[in-house]
Amino acid sequence: MSSSVLFDTPGPRARVRNRLFTVLGSLALAGLLAFVVYRLDAKGQLDPNVWDIFNNAGVRTNIRDGILTTLKVFAVAGALSLVLGLLLAVARVSDHRPVRWFATGFIELFRAVPLLITIYALWVVFLTYKTDLGVVGDNAAFWGLVVGLTIYNGSVQAEVFRAGINAVPRGQVEAAHALGLRKYQVMTTLLLPQAVRSMLPTMISQLVVTLKDTSLGYIITYTELLYATRMMATNIIVNGENPFTAVTIVAGAIYITMCLALSSLATWLERRGRRAKTGIAVAVAAGAGEQPEVLGVAEDGAVAAGGDAGRPPA
User: Fold this and answer.
1) Whole-angstrom distance, CA of residue 289 vs CA of residue 273
2) I want to staple 150 with a disulfide (CB 3.0 to 4.6 A). Which of 75, 80, 116, 309 is the partner?
3) SS3 for 93?
4) Tell me, what's the pLDDT at 57?
5) Is 246 exposed, middle or buried (0-12, 13-18, 19+ CB in 10 A)?
6) Are 225 and 67 in contact, with CB atoms under 8 Å apart?
């Protein structure tokens, strides 16, 4: 029987008990799902006429437009949040106290304020001063949603970047300063590349949160996917009722699909990062008059010796 530091391998009785709990849990979930389907059928929500509305061209167009506006907000807010997070992270690790204090206060403030309040407040500001700010029509809701998502998720991304920067061994930073590199050179050539690579899966996971948070746009009447489907269900009547359940199920399935796509990208990047192998040539001390021998790291991790090791093949 083998075990690790954090996990004891279960014995025969524990394995039987785990299998029993697994079967009981699966049966409970299956029963709950069957009950939900039964109640939906009893309420007439599984009537073919209810689901036939999605064969209407106008309904499909509304859903498509809602997806496009959601992706538009996500693309702009996601890119801006990464930029803002990078700037805040660099400011928070700065040696200048005023800069560090400002970045810390900004991050802690907007991480503590509910995102919905931030979005609504910004929407009111853009709507009130839209002429002075050059905002026209529905752009007030668009920029209120984008800026709100950028501020909140940028504050979270800043902590992700900072964690990646602090994870770089201190010896590398001291060695870089010993070589005469300036602070900005150490940050741009040493710290940030390693921080981004190590924290990339976490950054993409936070982008999934950004994508889900675009649904808060319905509060400020921005026509993203949730608002578009909600208004569509309000204006459609099937069998004397509004098909809110069917529309909600379809909208939820679309959100889940988009979020799973981003999550799969994060998982793929993490696995690819684990498989990545980098070769580092190490010079071996040679005697007087002798040519130094180089040890090259082969692709399979083996060490190859020889004067041509580490060089590309001719």
Assistant:
1) 42
2) 80
3) coil
4) 87
5) buried
6) yes
